[in-house]
Amino acid sequence: MTDQKRPAHCAAPAGAPAGKTAAESAVIMTHQVLPHDANPAGNVHGGVILKHIDTAAGVVAMRHVRGWAVTASIDRMDFLKPVFVGELVVIKASLNMVGRTSMEIGVRVEAENLLTGEVRHTNSAYLTFVALDDHGCPRQAPPLIIEGETGQRRLQEALRRRELRRQAMSEERGGE
Ligand SMILES: CC(C)(COP(=O)(O)OP(=O)(O)OC[C@H]1O[C@@H](n2cnc3c(N)ncnc32)[C@H](O)[C@@H]1OP(=O)(O)O)[C@@H](O)C(=O)NCCC(=O)NCCS
């Protein structure tokens, strides 16, 4: 938020908080699919998976900032394989990149057949969360300490996605 457009009740951002690693906020959440999560054929609804993805990413964001954070965007999501009633949905979420107030969180979803142990990769998703202060104003997030080649690769890919998102948003607003 620029100083010109900041509402009067939103204080100017405070100094930079201390950096944190992605490992400090990463989560693995599980959910067993029950009949009410699925269609009559036993396939879990896409919206149910999306809710778990949003929840897991929100936990990562709140852990990183130790404060409020809201979903600003969810990138395109493809359902690669079906998930069935009785299976375990395993949601792995961690930070890829932290901007000033925004954070990109990568989520990998797997389905585990509890009887056979078979694990299938069913979805990947990228979400942007924005850290908020107690007045609901965007606030500075702790910087992300990048660790290892994986952290560096995820950062570079996230920066490319952020650029594409910004271009798409600018085109939607008529290039303003
Ligand atoms: C997300 C929200 C706080 C952003 O507010 P805003 O006034 O646009 O804030 P700013 O322009 O200062 O942008 C703040 C940051 O968000 C990023 N951002 C804003 N909209 C975005 C979007 N649609 N996708 C990705 N990032 C976005 C900006 O790039 C900026 O990042 P940076 O600080 O790291 O550089 C506001 O749009 C909002 O409250 N949306 C509703 C959120 C919600 O209800 N979510 C669902 C329930 S959790």
Write the layout of secondary structure elements.
Blueprint (H helix, E strand, L loop, with lengths): L19 E2 L5 E6 L13 H20 L2 E7 L13 E11 L3 E11 L6 E14 L11 E2 L2 H25 L4
Parallel strand pairs: 1-7
Antiparallel strand pairs: 2-4, 3-6, 4-5, 5-6
The structure holds coenzyme A.
Coenzyme A (COA) binds next to strand 3 and strand 6.
Briefly summarize what is shown.
This protein has one domain (20-172): Thiol Ester Dehydrase, Chain A (Roll).
Identify the notable features of this structure and list them briefly.
binds coenzyme A; globular; two-stranded parallel ribbon; alpha+beta; single chain
Describe the structure.
The structure is a single chain. The protein is α+β, with helices and mostly antiparallel strands. The strands form two sheets. Strands 2-4-5-6-3 form a five-stranded antiparallel β-sheet. Strands 1-7 form a two-stranded parallel sheet. It is globular, with a radius of gyration of 18 Å. The longest helix has 25 residues, at about 150-170. The chain has a single domain (about 20-170), classed as Thiol Ester Dehydrase, Chain A, CATH 3.10.129.10. The relative contact order is 0.21. The chain has helices at about 45-65, 150-170; strands spanning about 20, 25-30, 70-75, 90-100, 100-110, 120-130, 145. The model has no long low-confidence stretch (mean pLDDT about 95).
